[in-house]
Design goal:
The structure is a homodimer. The first copy, chain A, is mainly alpha-helical. Chain A has helices at about 5-25, 35-50, 55-65, 85-105, 125-145, 155-170, 175-185, 190-215, 220-250, 250-255, 260-265, 270-275, 275-295, 300-315, and strands at about 115, 120. At the A-B interface, helix 2, helix 4, helix 5, helix 6 and helix 7 of A face helix 2, helix 4, helix 5, helix 6 and helix 7 of B.
Chain lengths: ~325, ~325
């Protein structure tokens, strides 16, 4: 049976949205004697809810599906048999919280100074700079909180998920890539240097999404390697396409400011390779991702295949 | 034998400093093709090393000692028998990294806008605002990374430590307290509201330090409750004394800007209770902390007793 990626995504996204909503609210202090934590929670909710493609949660869930012994319609399952699905949802939402916090901090005046995100004013525009700083900090902590004892998964899995997420978020991952990005304004990078920057800045968390989904099951070394290569390829492809869209799409379609890389004098795949070669490179990475899945020996990779194609062929 | 708290602290602090140094460096990306991650690591090191009383790591280690079956001279032990001590050191350093990141972000212009910390220019003065933002973000991630699989402790312990740390750092802990603090500038708080703010802002992480140390051993419910009450009392006492020192000490002694709470029109224990009643309240909290230790049924609480007295009777 052919995969209906749209239906698959819609069913899981509904669960992801509901879970994010519940968990961000649940992070409020028990006693709210005055308004400030309520304001913090409001900023966190604003940063996380009603927006985004949720690519990372979908990758977690699809990777988990690929290593699961049997296919179960988890998104449609009743509350009573949701044990393993809740664990996967927690992993999916944890990655999304890290992604959301990084956007909040990236948009701040001392970083990209952006006022538009997902078609709405950015968090610091709406809640002030201090509010945005704290909301981002609290979202990062909440991501790790989601993965701990209440998660209903074996402790070894919790620890493994925390480890994957922490490494992908930190100085050897996303934050490190951001630092290279900051230092690269107005600098002519080689293609290798650009790849290194993006591997850290966006690739690390996308790859971690895949590996966190895989960590929810038991897999062979070959499957582990296959998913790792798949994650690396789509992580890079995502950024190449982002760079292409930054010059070819408009702000309304993107829901964020278009053309900002060029106006900030940042090196991009388009500035280094040109448009045509960038598009060809994205297709080459898609082929690499699909090959890695075939070599993984895993049988249920339809959804991962579909997500890879979606990453490369998206228009916003 | 009477406890020599100075010698105990000196021995452990040497290990903590060495461990922090090693772990912050180890967080660098493997391939440093250009300078930016090096700059990020430099900012992280600047924020963490050569400064601070390291109260939180000492609380972790003292609490661990209190629940350990036998007293071992871990700080003096050779590398080969350091397994459990390394686990405790990781917990100790993880808490310190969260504390260090919070100081970096608190000092930023959009928060307290402070230029002096531990007698040195603050991180954003030295590395720019974006550098400080990223260094803080990366330090938070590193804290959780320290607690994961390589830590050489059972997975259930890792998960428990991550949970305690994440809750204490997030919106129901430190970040939530910061948000109340921000919203309280120029607002007249009751003593109850002030206590609630400080329970979250500084108390949560100090209490978590004690509970993380305790989580490294097996303890009774009574001991658990006793250490929880001890942690709550010294957490609050720390802040009361901080508020007292803010008006009675000078910037050189404190290593940070004195009198800034009053100049920022922030509510403090001194502004709410006055100096004399604040000092009496700190002593009352010390008595509560010592009583909680006696009620815990734990035998090796000398160091925790000494640290409580140090918190209340410190002059900087």
């Amino acid at each position: 049976m052919a995969l209906d990626l749209g239906a698959w995504s819609a069913a899981h996204l509904q669960q992801v949205e509901r879970a994010l909503d519940g968990w961000v609210c649940a992070s409020a202090p028990v006693s709210l004697e005055h308004g400030a934590p309520a304001e913090l929670i409001a900023a966190m909710r604003y940063a996380v809810l009603d927006g985004g493609k949720r690519l990372r949660p979908l990758l977690v869930l699809a990777a988990w599906e690929s290593v699961s012994a049997e296919l179960v319609d988890w998104a449609g399952a009743g509350a009573s048999d949701r044990g393993p699905y809740e664990a996967a949802l927690r992993a999916a939402c944890a990655v999304e919280l890290i992604h959301a916090y990084s956007l909040v901090h990236d948009d701040m005046p001392c970083m990209d100074n952006d006022v538009l995100r997902r078609g709405k004013p950015t968090v610091h525009v709406k809640f002030g700079e201090a509010g945005a700083l704290l909301a981002g900090d609290a979202l990062q902590a909440l991501a790790f909180e989601l993965l701990t004892p209440e998660a209903g998964m074996p402790a070894a899995q919790q620890a493994r998920l925390c480890s994957l997420l922490a490494r992908a978020a930190g100085s050897a991952g996303m934050a490190g890539g951001q630092a290279i990005d900051l230092a690269s304004v107005g600098v002519a990078l080689t293609e290798d240097q650009l790849r290194q920057m993006h591997r850290l800045k966006t690739g690390a968390l996308l790859q971690a999404s895949v590996m966190m989904g895989a960590a929810l099951g038991e897999i062979s070394d070959a499957a582990q390697r296959g998913l790792q290569d798949y994650g690396a390829a789509i992580g890079l492809a995502f950024q190449v396409v982002d760079d292409i869209l930054d010059v070819t799409a408009d702000s309304v379609t993107l829901g964020k400011t278009a053309g900002k890389d060029a106006s900030h004098d940042k090196p991009t795949y388009v500035s280094v390779l040109g448009l045509e070669r960038s598009a060809a490179y994205a297709q080459k990475l898609l082929a690499q991702a699909l090959l890695a899945l075939r070599q993984s020996g895993l049988h249920q990779t339809q959804t991962l295949q579909g997500l890879a194609a979606m990453v490369v062929n998206r228009v916003s």
